[in-house]
Amino acid sequence: MAKRLFIKTYGCQMNVYDSARMADVLRPLGYESVSSPEGADLVILNTCHIREKAAEKVYSELGRLQPLKRTKEAQGAERMLIAVGGCVAQAEGDEIVARAPHVDMVFGPQTYHRLPEMVARATRAAGAVLDVAFPVEAKFDHLPAVGAPQGASAFLSIQEGCDRFCTFCVVPYTRGAEYSRDADSIAAEARRLVESGAREITLLGQNVNAWHGRGSDGRGWRLGRLIRHLADIDGLQRIRYTTSHPRDLDDELIAAHGEVEKLMPYLHLPVQSGSDRILAAMNRQHGVDDFRRSVDKLRVARPDIALSSDFIVGFPGETDADFTATLRLVSDVTFAGAYSFKFSPRPGTPAAAMEDRVPESVKEARLETLQQLLGAQEAAFHRSKGGTVMPVLFEKRGRRPGQIVGRSPWMQAVVVEASERLLGEIVECRISRIGAHSLHGQLESAGLAAPGQRVCA
Ligand code: SAH
Ligand code: SF4
Ligand code: F3S
Question: Is the pTM of this model over 0.90?
């Protein structure tokens, strides 16, 4: 009988990718994914350590799982194994074992290819199995072939870890040193994804544009070259990559934005702050003007490119003048979307030990001011697409019957009334209405609507 596997994913897209690969690893052992933890044979929490709130969620979820585990035991059924994977596991493995004795396995982002062996050990043993090493063997060489993607859009991890050591960030500690996969193994995975239905691939890495791997000609390639190579795959229609560091945006990559049709005109480029002083304290290794210059170059190469970014407010020592500089940068550059956060001191990072902490109330006020500005820019960006025609990749059914939802080249959700036969297809749509969270449109070619169906949303 099939065993039930429930995976809950927190954090970034890399964790989403990893969760799918964990399911790939466990499938040969008879595990099938289910959508709720009740009665599951194996529950995996794939965790995120980036901010305090993210990490705390793990312990409350573990609390909720305990009675489920007991119920299953009381029914005389086989034991529910509970596993904690991902970045909290890597950072706080011992603490998890101490705080939550009902946890059976703890493993980091670099060891999930060893899950079969961990499951076997946990099934036999009473105590928790802990595997948070940074193994010498590369995880990607030990994973089975990638399973079918969930829909028309798929993630593909090409780079992991980070050597940049921004002073606020846990990633270099939880994910370890930077590692780039070879172009051939990436291309093979991309081809497999396309064969099983993917039309769009998002290349992933904590610092994805630092990718520098062995090319298929045996030479060292950088990301721009890799993207050109992947663009040759028939059937692959859209390429994206995330998350980038401004320092690693080289001219070859900028040129690819201008020349590779399949590379989508939307780039997430976190800048964190608009103050040179704060950028230096964050060890971002670039200044505000460098960022402005990169943006200018990108816009020359690809005039319709839209940018999104990440910001941290209330970094230790951030003054009103520093914050005003951030607002100025945002006003000048204009972003189509952004994430912004209050600085969260993370154990073990240099910034956690920095003095001159910004009071919580000041952080709150700055976050609100910044989010209002960014929110207005995002709304203006959506409005600018009203009345235009754009290619939409349809990915899923909409909330209402008869609706399907897709993505614009700029990552906007586009809702259209049309046949489900268009799922997985890219179709030209005219935007007729701008909603709060999505654009509404109609198929530009009326012949594509289902018979008897009203085309207009
Ligand atoms: N690799 C990406 C960022 C990964 S973390 C980069 O280099 O930009 C995603 C975002 O979380 C960061 O861009 C940052 O804005 C935010 N973040 C990371 N650590 C944080 C912390 N200690 N406090 C608040 N926000 C943080
Ligand atoms: Fe973290 Fe990104 Fe800085 Fe790396 S580059 S340390 S992942 S914020
Ligand atoms: Fe979180 Fe780890 Fe991603 S800390 S943001 S899940 S790399």
Answer: yes
